[in-house]
């Protein structure tokens, strides 16, 4: 599955648009993470637990987006974006990956091949 943030895919032709696709996950932080983040925010610096939570959320949302696109028959997603929302006074996070599922094919035999991230 090729996933790009651009509206076009260099070296490929969009033959079919399947429509919008989403990957969504909602996660809460555990109590220890909340306490640690509160203390760390007083001293300053990176909140590693929160960074890890967001990284995992994005990976899961991206995988769900790719699965939905593949389920529609697409082999690529263009105009890909992430949206992140904090909820419950910082106790959790929602991550939505979205884009447009498309069917693409390489232009000519000498076209450069893109790889999925």
CATH architecture designation: 2-Layer Sandwich
Tally of discrete structural domains: 1
How would you name the CATH homologous superfamily? Hypothetical protein apc22750. Chain B
Number of strands: 4
The run of helices and strands is EEHHEE
- Rg, rounded, reads 18 Å
Average the pLDDT over all residues and give the rounded result: 83
Question: Helices, strands, pairings?
Answer:
Layout: E1 2-3, E2 12-28, H1 31-43, H2 48-71, E3 76-87, E4 92-106
Parallel strand pairs: 1-3
Antiparallel strand pairs: 2-4, 3-4
Protein described:
- With 117 residues, the chain is of the alpha+beta class.
- The protein has a single domain (2-106), classed as Translation Initiation Factor IF3, CATH 3.30.110.
- It has helices at 31-43, 48-71, and strands spanning 2-3, 12-28, 76-87, 92-106.
- The chain has a four-stranded mixed β-sheet.
- The radius of gyration is 18 Å and the shape is elongated.
- The chain starts with a strand and ends in an 11-residue tail after the last strand.
- Pfam families: YbjQ_1 (PF01906).
- It comes from Gordonia caeni.
- This is UPF0145 protein GCM10022231_15410.
